[in-house]
Amino acid sequence: MPEKNIHQVHLGVNFLTPCNKFLQQNNSAEAHLEIKNVKERCMAMLEEALSQVTYRLPSARDTFESLSKLSPVIILNQISRPIFSELPFIHQAGNNVSKIEEQYRQISFVDWKEEAPFKKDGLPVDTEQFWIGVLQHKAFKELATFALTCLITPVGNAVVERIFSLVSSIKMKARSNAAESS
User: Fold this and answer.
1) Which stretches of the chain are DSSP H helices?
2) Which residues of the chain have pLDDT under 70?
3) Quick one: CA dihedral 154, 160, 166, 172, positive or negative?
4) Scanning 5, 117, 132, 148, which has the fewest C-beta atoms within 10 Å of its C-beta?
């Protein structure tokens, strides 16, 4: 990650307003240095939070990327769509894997704009709405059910919630300390 200058990072109006007020009340070199130090500590904390999220969530990131392969734009592209084995959560297919794979091979040959669920409003860009429409087509029920199951499979976010909780806690302590010192 490229190093950012502290002046290139926007720390938020709720942070900058008290800093500016503090500087107006204490316009000295020491006050400017103190604000600079606080900003640098905030920057270091944000960089560490980003590092921890990146370190702890590679599988979730990969999962979200693989779920994007279920997008109608990707699935219906006969040239660049992924092969069946690259789809997410193949294990969710269970005993229907052969049937689902066959339906996957056939799905791009249907003119979906002319099918009943999409005739009125056109082909949706929203992945979930697309698969809900495909579910109404008898020949693709298993594939649509598989895709919708993949889309509702939860991805754990407890780690991220803990990090944001920690960041909020640190920010509140920093604000309290800044308020006490002013």
Assistant:
1) 13-25, 29-56, 58-67, 72-75, 97-107, 116-119, 127-135, 141-152, 158-181
2) 1-7, 57-60, 153-163, 170-182
3) negative
4) 5
Amino acid at 98: S
For the chain, the domains span 11-57+158-181, 59-152
Instruction: Give the tens place of pLDDT for each residue, 109-132.
Output: 999 999 999 999 999 989 999 999
Q: How far apart are CA 99 and CA 91, in angstroms?
A: 14
How many CB atoms sit inside 10 A of residue 104's CB?
A: 21
Q: Tell me the C-alpha distance between 100 and 145, whole Å.
A: 9
Q: Which residues contact 177 (CB under 8 A, 6 or more apart)?
A: none
| Residue type, position 151, single letter | L
- Whole-prediction pTM value? 0.56
CB 56 within 8 A of CB 159: yes
Cβ–Cβ < 8 Å for 112, 143: no
